[in-house]
Specification:
The structure is a single chain. The chain is mainly alpha-helical and about 325 residues long. About 75% of the residues lie in helices and about 0% in strands. It is globular.
Length: about 325
Amino acid sequence: MAAPAYIALILVGIIILLFGGDLLVRGGAALAKVWRLPPLLVGLTIIAFGTSAPELVVSIQSALTGAPGLALGNIVGSNTANFLLILGLPAVFGAIATTTPGVRRNAIFALGAAVILIAVSWDRLISPVESYVLFALIIAYVLLLAFLARGKTDDPSIAELTDLEHMDGLPKSMPTILGALLIGLVGLPIGAHMIVTGGTAAAADLGVDDALIGLTAVAFGTSLPELATVVMASVRRQAELAIGNVLGSNIFNVFAVGGATGMAASAIGVDLPVPESFFGLDLWVMLGASIIIAGVIMAKQPISRLLGGLLFASYIGYIVILARSAVGG
């Protein structure tokens, strides 16, 4: 496959993936309103998992098609991009406050998720047991949110998920609701297949590990919803409300996506291998970014323009190092 072809395949796949994920979330939320399901239940299931659908389907399909580096690269790369790029770039244009309710709790969980991912990867394999433990942790996290949400509407990390009345663009009629769900359910695997096919072809053509494609192009593409959320919140001078979205995304990526990916691999009788290269740089960059963001939030300090610039510059430097190592390799 020629270079322009696989690049186009990845780009089109990302567009289909994001479009399908958005339709799935909106269709699910609209259907829940019609059925009069509790907003909390909808938010903590359909919306929360739906916004992680791009990472989820790409990683699972990568594992099932024998490209584990692409699967884990997507998780690690997305979490790194979320902290360094998604929070860093908007902060350059205006400091982001970190004192909103619930943010400190999620910062601790996000840091813990990074540590746990490194721990289960230490033997260079994620076993079926470890995969089930990861997925059990996301269930425990969702149940904790449900417990904490009782009577508390001032927590933006919960309110963002449960405010269905003000969610824009929900389909109204049953045919449009079902159509959105159908397109979303069909679009997600199609987009994922295109990304995985293009990514593995790119790795083969360039002579690099598929993990590199997952850490860069695929991770950036699947992080676009978070980038759009933070940028729009910054424009509306409500960027502090988007921190919960970024932290929650990182938690779901490790526990839900990582767990489901390992479970998918175990379904075909294999452990999920962790590329040795991840222990040279990538996992430590993810952990370092998690420590910095958690430290700033725990200190109740804003993500200033200076820190935002440093975070953004760090991400650019990280990508440059990856690119040079690929060329050198």
